[in-house]
Amino acid sequence: MELLLLQGFNALSVGSVLLLIALGLAFTFGLMGVINMAHGEMIMAGAYVTYVLQLAFTKYLPGAKGAYFLVALPAAFLVAGLLGLLMERLLVRHLYGRPLDTLLATWGVSLMLQQAARTIFGAPNVQVVSPPWLNGGLKVLGAVLPYKRLFILALAVLCVVGISLYLTRTAGGRRIRAVMQSRPMAACMGIATSRVDALTFALGSGLAGVAGAALTLLGPVGPATGTYYIVDAFLVVILGGVGQLLGTVVAALGIGAFNVAFELGSSASIGKVLVLLAIIVFLQWKPSGLFALRTRALD
């Protein structure tokens, strides 16, 4: 029972991390069809924002240094969101409808951002010390569930609920859904699609920044932190169905569960290979993913 509980929690934990990473990409890739290879560097930006705030709190507010992480989450969202907005305005908006050019351009941006991080913070990875209130774990049926993993799981749930409410209960969210269903019709109805694109790109980048802040709880971060997760993020988005929030959630949790299951009888590398093969086979059967996006466009 203890082993079953631990494996189930590990599956949820891996899935929640993948979900946080892929949420932002689900918007940029789903709405605009942009293959953003710099998405990983938005994750890196959020991680380094957390590192800088840890240093600032330790130096200037030592009595409240345990609260730095609560400040780092919105700060990482804002910094990564502003980086994404700047990239969309200066580069991506001029390359819509040219996926290969967009892929190469964003890959170039990712290389520049990685080099900028090496110049500012150095090439070695840096360690972010978790706040004291996240140390330890919760004992359930003899198993210890780390508070860090539980916090990431709760953060993923909070992000999904917040995004769902934004898409369904606000005017900005309804504009995003309208553009995803039919961009020409949305433009005819008076929606400024270019503004929606920019804000959506900023939202997706901001969510990647939050994921980067969460990743600092799991280990050291460095200039190449985001590149380790970019492939997994694309797999989650494609498997779930492009532009589908529910599909992204199901795909992230499913990939997390299969990763843990396959690693039980093999190594981590073999487990990832088996998961990739399973996804390829599934997409051969259902190319649109778990949940296909409904549009008003005729095939």
TrEMBL record:
The chain crosses the membrane at residues 12-35, 42-61, 67-87, 150-167, 199-221, 233-261, 273-293. One of its GO terms (biological process) is amino acid transport. It is found in: Cell membrane. The keyword Transport applies. GO terms for cellular component: plasma membrane. It is a multi-pass membrane protein. It comes from the Bacteria. Pfam families: BPD_transp_2 (PF02653). One of its GO terms (molecular function) is transmembrane transporter activity. Keywords: Amino-acid transport, Cell membrane, Membrane, Transmembrane, Transmembrane helix, Transport. Belongs to the binding-protein-dependent transport system permease family. LivHM subfamily. NCBIfam families: urea_trans_UrtB. This is Urea ABC transporter permease subunit UrtB. It comes from Hydrogenibacillus schlegelii (Bacillus schlegelii). The lineage of its organism: Bacteria, Bacillati, Bacillota, Bacilli, Bacillales.
